[in-house]
């Protein structure tokens, strides 16, 4: 009987190891979403010339290393890009089965949802399997892109992803809070925290293995539009001040901008776009304003907003 039990245990461990290996991704086959030509082809005409500009950095600039459990709501979103490659983006945990991200992170050349991908939760180092991590797949049927998403004008850049397996919430993996339906604040002047994975040096082509973060003031849209003369910043956007060269950057697409409110982390933005001429160029990073899309989130996830 003990021998049978031993064989059963070995079989279970082998099955678990095999299942996990299917969710392991070769870092050499990962590119940040902005390294794909389709990202640039879809941008507005006034930004097309920037695709040929040498980009000083593609990372959380002048940031700090995150500690284990500091951002339990952070997700790493790998979307299938074809030929065994994946695009890298960030995301946030809404519930045990849904993640929030940017539409441009989970769409193809024709703005259609990708075939699927893999999400890492609880990771501070995405290059290794940490005991805090949970990894699960998602399929095309689980991707909900905003029906009015327009990659050319960068409007409605929001999507939800349904996980194939429910996450288990703990100290290292947990949901973010979103602004209540009655919350009309614009959050200008609040200290915002941006977190994500991205390049750690200008000369290193690979994205960062480790989670980083920056803190800077959230701007009013009037302040932000003083930098962005193209009119790209609208009511559905929110901006983070670039003070001190601290900024989110290309590798952080889809990730969170959060503020502290009554002792909880409140997500106010989803990383959408930055100046292609450099993340330390003095232009604010631009984010999707979460509160603008409450109805979309409610209709395309099982997240329940506070009244």
Automatic annotation (TrEMBL):
Domain Peptidase S1: 60-302
Keyword DNA repair in annotation: no
CDD domains with a match to the protein in the record: Tryp_SPc
Biological processes, Gene Ontology terms: digestion; proteolysis
Family: Belongs to the peptidase S1 family. CLIP subfamily.
Signal peptide: 1-19
PANTHER family, A to Z: AT26814P-RELATED, POLYSERASE-RELATED
InterPro entries associated with the record: Peptidase_S1, Peptidase_S1_PA, Peptidase_S1_PA_chymotrypsin, Peptidase_S1A, Trypsin_dom, TRYPSIN_HIS, TRYPSIN_SER
Pfam families: Trypsin (PF00089)
Keywords, sorted A to Z: Digestion, Disulfide bond, Hydrolase, Protease, Serine protease, Signal
Protein name: Peptidase S1 domain-containing protein
GO molecular function: serine-type endopeptidase activity
């Amino acid at each position: 009987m003990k021998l049978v039990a031993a064989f059963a245990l070995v079989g279970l461990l082998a099955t678990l190891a095999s299942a996990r290996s299917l969710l392991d991704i070769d870092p050499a086959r990962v590119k940040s979403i902005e390294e794909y030509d389709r990202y640039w082809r879809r941008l507005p005409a006034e930004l097309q010339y920037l695709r040929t500009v040498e980009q000083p950095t593609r990372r959380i600039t002048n940031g700090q290393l995150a500690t284990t459990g500091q951002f339990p709501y952070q997700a790493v979103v790998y979307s299938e890009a074809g030929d065994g490659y994946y695009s890298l983006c960030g995301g946030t945990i809404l519930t045990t089965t849904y993640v929030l991200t940017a539409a441009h992170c989970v769409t193809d050349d024709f703005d259609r949802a990708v075939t699927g991908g893999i999400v890492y939760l609880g990771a501070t180092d995405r290059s290794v399997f940490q005991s805090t991590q949970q990894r699960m797949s998602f399929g095309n049927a689980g991707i909900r892109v905003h029906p009015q998403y327009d990659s050319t004008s960068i409007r409605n850049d929001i999507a939800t992803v349904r996980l194939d397996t429910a996450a288990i919430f703990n100290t290292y993996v947990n949901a973010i809070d979103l602004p209540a339906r009655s919350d009309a604040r614009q959050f200008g002047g609040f200290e915002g925290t941006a977190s994500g994975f991205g390049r750690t040096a200008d000369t290193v082509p690979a994205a960062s293995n480790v989670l980083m973060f920056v803190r800077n003031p959230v701007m009013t849209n009037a302040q932000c539009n003083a930098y962005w003369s193209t009119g790209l910043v609208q009511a559905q956007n929110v901006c983070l001040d670039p003070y001190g060269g601290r900024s989110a950057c290309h590798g952080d697409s889809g990730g969170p901008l959060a503020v502290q409110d009554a002792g909880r982390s409140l997500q106010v933005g989803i990383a959408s776009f930055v100046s292609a001429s450099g993340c330390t160029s003095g232009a604010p990073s631009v984010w999707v304003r979460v509160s603008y899309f409450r109805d979309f989130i409610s209709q395309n996830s099982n997240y329940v907003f506070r009244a």
